[in-house]
Amino acid sequence: MTDTKKSQHGEWSSRFAFILAATGSAVGLGNIWKFPYITGENGGGAFVIIYLLCVLLIGIPIMMAETMLGRRSRQNPISTMITLADEAGADKNWHYLGWMGVAAGFLILSYYSVIAGWASAYVLKALTGSFFGADASAIKAIFDDFVASPVKLLFWHSLFMLATMLIVVRGVNTGLEKAVRFLMPSLFVLLILMVAYAMTTDSYDQGVKFLFTPDFSKLTGNGVLTAMGHAFFTLSLGMGAIMVYGSYLPKDVSISKTVFLIAGTDTVVALLAGVAIFPIVFASGLEPAAGPGLIFQTLPIAFGNMTGGWFFGVLFFVMLVFAALSSSISLIEPAVAWLVENKDMSREQACIWSGSITWLLGLGTIFSFNVWSEFKIFDRTIFQLLDYLTANLMLPIGGFCIAVFAGWIMKQQHTEHELDMPNALSYQTWQILTRYVAPAAVFLVFLHVVGVL
Fold first, then answer.
1. How far apart are CA 264 and CA 210, in angstroms?
2. In angstroms, rounded to a whole number, what is the distance separating the alpha carbons of residues 20 and 177?
């Protein structure tokens, strides 16, 4: 199938372009915002070791499977599952897996854009010296005042969504590829600069020791499951992004080698973020287990009181915006691709429809922090409900189903042909991990998040 079928959206110009794009999808707020704080909450080094094992044994096999599905079909996730289920003689209901991925991308971007808007606003706040000399109560007041204003949140949400759609509307080569060729190298440069600064602090050794020295007495069963879940989510699996990016992958590119590079790069970014952040946290006498507020309510205290804090504050939040933008374009691309392929829309029309619906859904998240803060469904605000529904339910189910479909439903001759592994042992290892290890692990995560474990 791959030998003759091509995506109507074009292809990545090279393996390197795909690596940048897929890494950009994986590297987002989760790496720079979430990874450091969950590492802090779970004791540091031991958690990191479990996380790395989970990336290797769960994330990489499923990522290979999802990329393979996309490249074999050369279509959007919904059409991909229809085509491949038909090819395998399987139940046609597998197309719901594609629908769930596209829907998850829509819902995630609707609140992701709001949080990315916060990062964008904090670039300006750092630039104008809002954090200079501020203590914890002052920083908290800045944050509380910002999220209490629906007008401010709406402005930054709208600006971020507009930037996302302006990139996506230009297509694979002139839009997505050009954007990641700028965003990803810039992100790495900014991150290295932050690490370089961290190395000048008196607490650099303390931060690195916390991150890389394992103390398994601090690791709980919940911490193991958290590491497993984050390894899965950080690679952007189960939301259609990697599948649709895979559909643009040239046929002569090795999926296995490429996925190892992407997963490796994504993991390095997460670890570098920890190396950059924890020394600053310790040097400022702050708490590494501060939770989600580590970025917006804790680090600004450090930036406001350290030498060169103005520069490094701007640098950090620009980096956060770049990371968010490289992910946001992948979240909306599956929906745009489906509209172009199935509804006879131009790419411009598809972007307008997709972007407008996502922007509208984002209003629920904006109002969750102010005028609708008391409105709750199942004891959750709209933002909390969207986050729980996608991250804790839709993505684990999607990843589980991808592993089952690739490992059990597709014909072995097709998976062998698409993956083109270097030897039989490599393929058999992937097959064992995809058929048994990854589904079992994702199932355990799912049981955990729904409260069974």
1. 21
2. 8
- Contact in structure between 279 and 201 (CB atoms under 8 Å): yes
Q: Is residue 453 a contact partner of residue 225, using CB atoms and an 8 Å limit?
A: yes
Give the tens place of pLDDT for each residue, 90-106: 998 999 999 999 999 88
The Cα–Cα gap between 315 and 312 comes to 5
Global pTM exceeds 0.85: yes
Q: Which residues pair with 380 in a beta bridge?
A: 377
CA–CA gap between residue 333 and residue 439 (Å, rounded): 26
What 411-419 contacts at long range (C-beta under 8 Å, 24+ apart), as own/partner pairs, is 411/87, 411/88, 414/1, 414/72, 414/87, 414/88, 415/68, 417/2, 418/2, 418/68, 418/71, 418/72, 418/255, 419/64, 419/68, 419/255, 419/256
Task: Report pLDDT digits (tens) over 402-428.
Answer: 999 999 999 999 999 999 888 899 999
Predicted pLDDT at 316: 86
What are all long-range contacts of 302-309, with beta carbons under 8 Å and residues at least 24 apart?
Answer: 303/126, 303/131, 304/131, 304/132, 304/133, 304/134, 304/139, 305/133, 305/134, 306/280, 308/197, 309/131, 309/132
pLDDT at residue 357 tops 90 = yes
**Residue 293 has what DSSP assignment?**
G
Tokens read off for 421:
């592994």
Helix, strand or coil, per DSSP, at residue 253: coil
CATH of domain 15-449: 1.10.4160
Neighbours of 452 (CB within 10 A): 8
Q: What is the CA radius of gyration of the chain?
A: 21
Cα separation, 267 vs 150, in Å, equals 35
> Where is pLDDT greater, at 19 or 55?
55
**Which residues is 377 bridged to in the sheet?**
380
Question: What tokens does 193 get?
Answer: 């600069």
